[in-house]
Amino acid sequence: MAELTTTELDAVAQVLADAGAEVVGPLDATLIAGGRSNLTFRLSDGVTRWVLRTPPRAGRTPSAHDVAREYRVTRALGAAGVPVPAAVALCEDESVLGGPFTVAGFVDGVTVQTRVDLDRLDDATVDSCVDGLVETLARLHAVDHVAAGLERFGRPDGYSERQLRRWSSQWEIVGAPALTGLATETAGLLGAALPEQRAVGIVHGDYRIDNTILRLDAPVQVAAVVDWELSTVGDPVADVALMCVYRHPALDLVLGSPSAWTSGRLPAPTELAARYEAAGGVELAAWDFHLALGYFKLAVIAAGIDHRHRAGATHGEGFDTAGDAVAPLLEAARETARSL
């Protein structure tokens, strides 16, 4: 069930009021298409709009839907000057909606999610989008997480080892038995090549064009970065690598349709990485390791989507192809890891 009942919406309105928001009438909710993890609703009281995010109501995997984490990091980053939606309310009482939820301010702008969305833009606008994306990511990585009040948001060291352990554990929950040998081999190669961590910063963990809201002026502006459920303190190089990993064609299978970010009109991963460094980002040390780990992570995410789909816990179309992405992503991870 992906709808919110009248009783639930009344309870959400009370949570908003308790957080200091003015709600002038009954709320209505519209499910926003495109989410592959948390459910996302646009709320309105007829005057003001908000966005509510909550985990799926069935088929959840541990730590994969941490909306409370999103709330805490966006509240801190908004004060640090990173473009994020305004953090309005957090409710961790699962009796209200069956899981925790957050409410954020609605951000006006354009989302570029699909190939069709991207193809509406001319080449100059697309290029400006890329500049805005890499500049915003570099700005995020420059934030002092301690000064921003996020000193307890994650351990600053040992990021790669923790990520490998986390996603290997996730695989044990959601992975297909037929691919477990490949996953185990890949994890072993990565574990034998763990690099020294040279930089520390706030890591988004899911950064690409469709997790931003854009204003298509000249130049393009990133109005907000969204979907922070995988964020932590760690190695910023991993964030850049995953952004580049998402350029793999298998992302279309994960998302269930041709995506903007896999388009041939966008720069190749090597150029994306170079533009990030030119924008003032951190030095991309141990680059091939982080690419391999990124492929492995995306493979496990795809396996998790497929797991929820088979459990009947997904809503809408486009979830039935995620399982087909797992093998090519694991193979890309293994081949990259073999070169380490």
Summarize the structure in words:
The protein is of the alpha+beta class and 340 residues long. It has eleven helices and nine strands. Strands 1-2-3-5-4 form a five-stranded antiparallel sheet, with helices on both faces. It has a two-stranded antiparallel sheet with strand order 6-9. Strands 7-8 form a two-stranded antiparallel ribbon.
Explain briefly what this protein structure is.
With 340 residues, the chain is of the alpha+beta class. 42% of the residues lie in helices and 12% in strands. The chain has 2 domains: 6-105, Phosphorylase Kinase, domain 1 (2-Layer Sandwich); 115-338, Alpha-Beta Complex (Aminoglycoside 3'-phosphotransferase, Chain: A, domain 2).
Any guess at the CATH architecture of the largest domain? Alpha-Beta Complex
Output the structural class: alpha+beta
**What is the strand arrangement across the widest sheet?**
1-2-3-5-4
Computed Rg: 19 Å
Looking at CATH, the homologous superfamily of the largest domain is: Aminoglycoside phosphotransferase (APH), C-terminal lobe
Q: Percentage of helical residues?
A: 40-55%
Helix-strand layout with pairing:
Blueprint: H1 6-18, E1 28-31, E2 39-44, E3 49-54, H2 67-79, E4 87-91, E5 101-105, H3 115-119, H4 123-141, H5 159-174, H6 180-191, E6 201-203, E7 212-215, E8 221-225, E9 232-234, H7 236-245, H8 251-255, H9 269-278, H10 287-310, H11 322-338
Antiparallel strand pairs: 1-2, 2-3, 3-5, 4-5, 6-9, 7-8
Helix pairs in contact: 4-9, 5-6, 5-10, 6-10, 6-11, 7-9, 7-10, 10-11
Notable characteristics:
single chain; 340 residues; alpha+beta; Phosphorylase Kinase, domain 1; Aminoglycoside 3'-phosphotransferase, Chain: A, domain 2; 2 domains; 5-stranded antiparallel beta sheet; two-stranded antiparallel sheet; 11 helices; 42% helix; globular
